[in-house]
Write a structure and sequence with these properties.
heterodimer; A: about 400 residues; 13 helices; B: about 500 residues; MetI-like fold; 3 domains; extended
């Protein structure tokens, strides 16, 4: 005669309790109720105060103002824009300008950052010290300070257009910005771009084919001659057939200013230089930490297998370092995008400057405008962090396997 | 025998000395191994030397050799008057130094600023040196007492009441707001379709508000009596001291735990009384200096220190909230942290400047500096929470479990076992976020506050000092100030990190 097994205790109530109140149980539920009531009260206070304040200032809440005419000019636009366009178009102009300065800044920041990181890792004492000095000096000064330094001290000290500093006779630096040759599209542009795209796609396909051949059958295929032919040869042939894809219109000094060419406004130059040098210092540290995080034995194992130093770096060290580098690097890219809002200090027409600055002071729609501005940055951050968590999940899956 | 002698070879003389190995120590060895050991490295060394030559030499020439050291206006710093190439224009800094340090703080009152910073330094330095004792008293003084004293020193003004009046005022506002909300709902019920239901809800809320008014009636009555007596804050202070002491005594376990908590509490109140008396807060205090007159390094330090002091409790609360198992609190904490971390500080400052006044009652104006302080604290709090979360995760689970096994409550486990260990782990990260906070204070110049950078920018507009080298001089001077603060903090963070990792070194 066996003892009858006891029935398990009823789990439903426990589970409910856990779901509603966490480990704290019904106390947790009570805490939540109080907390919710406080939040509701704060929200009520905010809404009712905002409503009375807006009424007393005669401002109509809502997004209707976006259809009104903005009637101010913006000195750099990527899409056609004039003063008679709507506030919504101002918003788009601002977002595009923010994106432009972020993308250009990210590019230069990455390049400078990797160079400085290599300097810091260099066995050469002097070079590594110079790299260290750069990082320390840049990281210990405020970004706004640096942007203002470039804008108010360096760029303002450049000569007037008539005495421009000429670089190769094509680029001119003066206190009104940088004058660069402007590209003019020719009939050969379309086939040229098409062939270039074809070349890129074919090279990628070739690379994946070669990798598969290497991993599956152990056959090493040298693909670089084909890639070179695809990427350089194909466009070259199209150029010979259809003529030059673009010609450049060179700037020329006429009177007090330049005719022809395109002008990059000094605000853009100052902001890009400031953002990219500043972020580069952080990127340099991330890259250095990433490369140092790969164990010394990996390098030694690579050379004991007979791989050359370059091949060891390329095939063994860098892939492992990238795993450490990529997440904080993305964070720095995000920081750079957020920091581009400092444009408002020097008047570069980014989102904050034209929308949260000029449009806000013209319309007084503080709540809507600041919410939209914050929303753009928030969306960028959330999308990036979502992508990064997918990346992190894939990395941990590939490691866990 | 001879065979062997003949067939074997015995060396008769010494082998000639080999040349000494290449020297790898000392200066020559260092130059050989670290600078000139391969053709690429020789090239890199030459490039590095060129870079240093073209950056360091002109900088020193500008800052020291060619600099102008005395003068009264721009004429002293113009190349044609000096008769030589002109570098830094230091008289400009001399002329603007008060503006860069104090803004427009009245000259007769500047001793207050100096005193505040001296006080802050005296309290902060022993806090930073790990070997010194009495950390908790020291931290309490710096994080709680110092901000209050600094406020009355820098801003001036006195107090009319004390704890009872403040609590009564706050509770009355709260009760009024609830009653107001209830009446609004009742008003809504007249036009809405769900009239009776709304009316019932509204009446219930009004009832809660009225009940609350009754509950706090003794407090408000006490306040009114004390205001009418015309004795200043002293009666209020005494009553607050008695109430707080009694509550502590009863809640702390009465006579069982000994007299120590009671003595601490009374000593604290005695200290507060001494400060009130010393600064004359009961008699109106020091003359009020409006924050619009504040500027320069003063504003930079005020924002940085307020941000540091205010962000820590916000960060602790959010980090604990994010780890909590209670759903609503966790969701709120995550949303809050991710929101503030996702937006740039400048939009937060715009939010604080333009949106916050709309959210407050119309008769309630907030000072421009306070708005920036609120924005900075909310923003930094979110970053601090993420730092602390790392520290909390680093505390082994067993610590909390052991505390529960001993029968400690959640509050005691957290405040006595988990948090102290977590805080120790994250000191370097916290100091690093203080560095970025200090750098970020420069952003307030965009919302029309004159911090160090804003004052510098304003001083460039002075036509008395417009010379080609003014801007470079100003940036050099401010840059050195920022660098000293940030570099000092980063070295300190490295020092703490080194100390914390002492057990991992071999």
């Amino acid at each position: 005669m066996g003892v009858e097994a006891r029935k398990p205790p009823p789990q439903l109530a426990l589970k409910l309790r856990r779901a509603l109140g966490g480990k704290a149980g019904w106390n947790g539920v009570a805490v939540q109720l109080v907390f919710g009531a406080v939040l509701a009260w704060i929200a009520y206070e905010i809404i009712s105060n905002a409503r009375t304040n807006l009424e007393s200032q005669h401002i109509a809440a809502g997004f209707g103002f976006l259809r009104n005419s903005a009637s101010f000019d913006v000195n750099q636009t990527l899409i056609p824009y004039s003063g008679s366009d709507t506030y919504f178009r101002v918003f788009i102009v601002g977002v595009l300008n923010t994106l432009l300065v972020s993308v250009v800044g990210i590019f230069f920041a990455t390049v400078i950052g990797f160079i400085v990181a290599l300097c810091r890792l260099s066995p050469n004492w002097l070079v590594s010290r110079v790299g260290g000095l750069y990082v320390e000096a840049i990281r210990n000064l405020p970004l706004l300070f640096q942007i203002l330094f470039w804008y108010l001290a360096v760029l303002a000290a450049l000569p007037a257009p008539r005495q421009s500093v000429s670089v190769l006779g094509a680029f001119f630096l003066n206190n009104r910005g940088v004058i660069v040759p402007s590209p003019l599209a020719q009939p050969g542009l379309v086939p040229f771009l098409a062939m270039l795209a074809l070349g890129v796609v074919a090279s990628l396909a070739l690379r994946s084919y070669a990798r598969r051949a290497l991993f599956d059958q152990g056959r090493a295929i040298q693909i670089w001659p084909y890639v070179l032919a695809l990427l350089v040869g194909l466009p070259l042939v199209t150029t010979l057939v259809f003529g030059l894809p673009v010609t450049f219109e060179f700037p020329q000094l006429k009177g007090f200013n330049f005719a022809g060419g395109a002008r990059i406004i000094p605000e853009f130059v100052a902001l890009t230089v400031g953002l990219s040098t500043y972020t580069a210092a952080f990127i340099a540290e991330i890259v250095r930490a990433g490369i140092l995080s790969v164990h010394k034995g990996q390098m030694e194992a690579g050379s004991s297998l007979g791989l050359s130093r370059g091949a060891t770096l390329r095939l063994i060290v860098v892939p492992q370092a990238m795993r450490v580098i990529v997440p904080p690097l993305t964070n720095q890219y995000l920081n750079l995008t957020k920091n581009s809002s400092l444009a408002v200090a020097i008047g570069y027409p980014d989102l904050v400057s034209v929308f949260a600055g000029t449009a806000l002071s013209q319309t007084g729609q503080a709540i809507e405008i600041i919410a939209m501005t914050m929303g753009v940055y928030l969306l960028t951050s959330l999308v990036t962090s979502a992508v990064m968590s997918v990346y992190g999940w894939r990395i941990s899956r590939s490691l866990g396997a | 025998m001879t065979d062997i002698a003949a067939s074997s070879f015995v060396r008769q003389d010494l082998v000639s000395e080999r040349a000494a190995p290449v020297k790898t120590t000392g200066f020559v060895g260092f130059v050989r191994t670290r600078l000139l050991n391969s053709p690429t490295n020789i090239l890199l060394t030459i490039l590095g030397l060129l870079l240093v030559w073209y950056i360091v030499v002109p900088s020193i020439k500008f800052l020291l050799v060619d600099a102008v050291w005395s003068g009264n206006d721009r004429t002293a710093c113009l190349a044609e008057n000096a008769g030589r190439p002109v570098g830094a224009c230091w008289p400009f800094i001399q002329a603007k130094s008060t503006q860069l340090f104090y803004g427009f703080y009245p000259e007769a009152e500047r001793w207050r600023v100096n005193l505040t910073f001296a006080l802050g330094a005296v309290l902060l330095l022993p806090l930073l040196i790990p070997r010194l004792p009495a950390k908790s008293v020291n931290a309490g003084l710096f994080f709680l007492a110092f901000p209050a004293v600094a406020f009355f020193l820098l801003h001036g003004g006195g107090i009319a009441g004390f704890g009872v009046s403040w609590v009564a005022g706050l509770l009355q506002l709260f009760a009024d707001s609830i009653s107001g909300a209830g009446e609004a709902v009742v008003g809504l019920s007249k036009t809405s379709a769900a009239g009776p239901a709304l009316w019932a809800i509204g009446s219930a809320i009004v009832l809660v508000g009225t009940l609350l008014h009754w509950v706090i009636f003794p407090l408000t009555w006490l306040r009114d009596q004390m205001l009418a007596s015309g004795q200043g804050p002293w009666p209020d202070f005494l009553i607050t001291a008695v109430i707080v002491s009694v509550i502590l005594f009863v809640l702390g376990g009465g006579a069982r735990v000994g007299s120590r908590p009671l003595i601490t509490c009374l000593a604290t109140f005695a200290g507060i009384a001494a400060v009130i008396k010393l600064m004359g807060l009961d008699r109106g205090g020091l003359p009020i200096v409006d924050t619009r007159l504040w500027g320069g390094l003063l504003v930079t330090l005020v924002i940085a220190i307020t941000g540091i002091v205010a962000s820590l409790p916000i960060g602790v609360a959010l980090a604990l909230g994010r780890r909590s198992t209670i759903p609503l609190i966790r969701i709120f904490s995550i949303t809050y942290i991710e929101f503030w971390r996702g937006v740039p500080l400048i939009t937060v400052l715009f939010f604080a400047t333009y949106m916050l006044p709309l959210f407050l009652p119309g008769n309630f104006t907030v000072d421009g500096l306070v708005r920036a302080l609120i924005g900075v604290s909310l923003f930094t709090g979110a970053y601090q929470a993420e730092n602390l979360r790392g520290g909390l995760a680093a505390v082994p689970r067993g610590q909390g479990e052991a505390a529960s096994a001993l029968g400690l409550s959640w509050w005691k486990t957290t405040s006595l076992i988990v948090l102290p260990q977590a805080l120790r782990h994250v000191i370097p990260a916290i100091v690093n976020s203080f560095i970025s906070l200090f750098k970020d204070t420069s952003l307030v110049s965009i919302v029309a506050l004159f911090d160090l950078l804003g004052s510098l920018r304003a001083s460039f507009a002075d036509p008395v000092w417009t010379t080609p080298s003014t801007a470079f001089t100003g940036f050099a001077f401010t840059g050195i100030i920022y660098f000293i603060f940030c570099f000092g903090m980063s070295r300190y963070s490295l020092f703490v990190e080194h100390r914390l990792n002492a057990h991992r070194r071999n």
